[in-house]
Amino acid sequence: MPHFVKHRRRGSKALICEAQGLALLRDTLQASGNGLLQIPEVYAVSEVRMELQLIEQAPPQGALMAQLGQGLARLHQLPMPRYGLGYDNYIGLAPQANGWYQDWGRFFVERRLQRQIARIEDQAIRRRFDGELQHYQQRLTDFLNQHCQQPSLVHGDLWSGNVLFGDGQVWLIDPAVHYADREVDLAMTELFGGFAAGFYQAYDAVFPRSAVYDLKRPLYNLYHYLNHFNLFGPSYLAGCEQGLDALARL
Q1: Closest to 227 in 3D by CA, of 94, 46, 47
Q2: Do the beta carbons of residue 198 and residue 231 sit within 8 Å?
C-alpha cells in the first residue's frame, strides 16, 4: 500500500493529535455504519513523522459532493454526551484548547474566542477585541446555547483542502476534532468560497441547518479568522472585524 509521509518539528504533538483525531472519526463512522465517508489509515506516527495511506486524488464529481453532504449530516446526527474533548489538539499549525463542558456557549467563548484573542500580539487590537467580546459575552453564550441542538462530533477544520476524492470515495484528512454544535463544520466550509451547491442540498436533505445558521456562520468563522490573523497576519483582520460586527446583531 503506498504511503504518504508528513513531517513536523520535534516538540509539537500536532501529528500525534492528528492521528488521534483520524482514529476518533474512523471509529465513530464505523460504529454507526456510516460508510459514506472514509478516513486514511495511519501506519506509524511520532512527534516528527507520520506515515499514512496515500489517496490517489480525482476531481470531485457531483455525486461525491452529495455523498460528502449526506455522510457529514449522518455523522452530525449522532448525539454525544458533552461538548469539547478530553485533550488539547491543533487547528492547523496552532494549539487548540479543549476540555469537557456541558455548556456549548461557554465552551465556544472560553476555549475558542478568548484563547485566540489572548494570542494577538498587537496590544491595542487585543484589548479592543477582548473588550468587544466581554461586552457581548453573555448574549453570545445564551444565543449559542439556545440554538444548539446537541453535541456532535465535528471535523473541526472542514475546508476544501481537507477533503479528498479518490477511488470513488470521499476522504477526510487533517481534522481538529471535538464535540460541538455541528454547524461549526458547515460554517467552516464557507470560509474560503464554499463547497458545491450539491453538498449543502444533500446535507440539508438529511439534517437541515437551523433557522439561525446565517447568523451563526460569521460567529463561528470568527474563530478561524482570529486563528489565521494570529498565524498569517493583517490580511485576515477584516474577517475578524466582520465576525465581531455579527455580535451586535444578536
Answers
A1: 94
A2: no
In the set 130, 157, 185, 245, the catalytic residue is 157
Q: Which residues pair with 51 in a beta bridge?
A: 5, 44
Enumerate the H helices of the chain as residue ranges: 14-31, 62-77, 104-107, 114-118, 123-146, 183-189, 197-206, 213-232, 237-247
All cell numbers assigned to 52: 499514512
Question: pLDDT tens across 190-241, in order?
Answer: 998 889 999 999 999 999 999 999 999 999 999 999 999 999 999 999 999 9
22 phi, psi to nearest 5 deg: -60, -40
CA atoms of 249 and 139, how far apart (whole Å)? 10
Distance CA 96, CA 34 (A): 27
Q: Would you call 157 a catalytic residue per the annotation?
A: yes
- Specify whether the CB–CB gap between 58 and 196 falls below 8 A: no
- Helix, strand and coil content of the chain, in percent to the nearest 5, comes to 50, 15, 35
Query: How far apart, in whole angstroms, are the C-alpha atoms of residue 111 and residue 117?
Result: 10
Does this model's pTM top 0.90?
yes
